[in-house]
Amino acid sequence: MSKNIIDLMSISKSYDNNLILNDMNLSIRKNEFLTLLGPSGCGKTTTLRIIGGFINPDRGKVVFEDKDITKAPPYKRNLNTVFQKYALFSHLNVYDNIAFGLKIKKMCKNDIRSKVGSVLELVNLKGFENRTIQSLSGGQQQRIAIARAIANEPKVLLLDEPLGALDLKLRKDMQYELKRIQRELGITFIYVTHDQEEALTMSDTVVVMNNGLIQQIGSPENIYNEPSNAFVANFIGESNIIEGIMRKDCLVNFFNKNIPCVDKGFGANEPVDIVIRPEDVEVVSIEEGLFTGKITSSIFKGVYYEMNIYSNGYNWMVHNTKTIDVGSKVGINVIPFNIHIMKKMGKE
Question: How many whole angstroms separate alpha carbon 48 and alpha carbon 8?
Fold first, then answer.
């Protein structure tokens, strides 16, 4: 049997002649936290709904544990979904909301009581059995929706932007809670979001999507540090993206200077895009800098200052723990390890 729990094979989907998913292939491993990340309209929610059985693809197959479930209805798939609006029953209390699916399965009352108690403890809401849904905060309702979903012991839990309605602090808290719950349960989570921080915080694997196509698949560290193209570099955090020429292995030219790097495998004098994250740009004295520039702005962001430095016709974004007066002339330095070289879009 495959180590993958779900395989999407050549999935395509259109609405009103608009292509939403274009020949998508994706394998999802057992027990991993996988996030579909991308802007609105990129196809991530459509992908989730196809996995869940709520819509059918125009072409392709959905394989679950080596079985074709492309045409199987949602209730015949061993997975559950948590939606952004939670879809809790307002006329039922917490206990009956969680017990709803278990009663449909005709589980005995003692087993239901035990299961409800255990999942409430897992989501840190023990003792909430008799509370009404209206009396709960947004974060508590979200936990109840998760508890109801996992009470049925699905092999896969689908989460469609479930933190979108929460305030910033609660959303951050719930990111860690969701990862804890996933680890304790040991089941596969497939999570949809447009929030880069959520994806980087929680995921084992991030799938970056745009215009119905997968742009890159990898760990959060890999996606952030080694973006495959300019879209990924721009979408995942802030980036300085500069055009350059790869002279040879480990030597790139930009702003008319040959600069050491660590990248290999490019052709001689190949045009490339260069990614340098704002936190990887060093502000030094003019004498020490590879380039010189002028501070055009400095904004306090809490743990760092976000500065813009104009140099060689390019406006660098720089994150620094200390501010520098606007108008000051400074040097800019980048160590080779912090320079990431990408092939130009459309080139193999």
Answer: 11
pTM, whole model, 2 decimals? 0.85
Question: Cβ(291)–Cβ(312) under 8 Å?
Answer: yes
CA angle 299, 304, 309 (to 5 degrees): 55
CA-to-CA dists, residue 37 to 54, 142, 150, 172, 205, angstroms: 20, 20, 23, 17, 10
Q: What average pLDDT does the segment 227-254 reach?
A: 93
- Which helix H or strand E contains 93, and what residues bound it? none
pLDDT beyond 70 at 115? yes
Question: In the CATH scheme, what is the code of domain 238-343?
Answer: 2.40.50.140
CATH number of 4-230: 3.40.50.300
Report, in angstroms and rounded to the nearest whole number, the Rg of the chain calculated over CA atoms.
24
Q: Residue 243 — φ and ψ, nearest 5°?
A: -80, 140
Tell me, yes or no, if the two domains 4-230 and 238-343 fold the same way: no
Q: Which of 214, 209, 149 is nearest to 185 (CA)?
A: 149
Highest mean pLDDT among 112-121, 143-152, 162-171, 305-314: 305-314
Sequence-ordered list of residues with C-beta below 8 angstroms from that of 187, at least 6 positions apart, any chain: 31, 150, 154, 155, 156, 157
End-to-end CA distance of the chain: 33
For residue 341, with 0-12 CB atoms within 10 Å meaning exposed, 13-18 middle and 19 or more buried, which class applies? buried
Say what angle helices 138-151 and 109-122 make with each other, to 10 degrees: 130
Contact between 306 and 298 (Cβ < 8 Å): yes
Ranges of each domain in the chain? 4-230, 238-343
Could you tell me which residues are beta bridge partners of residue 251?
248, 260
Q: Quick check: helix, strand or coil at residue 170?
A: helix
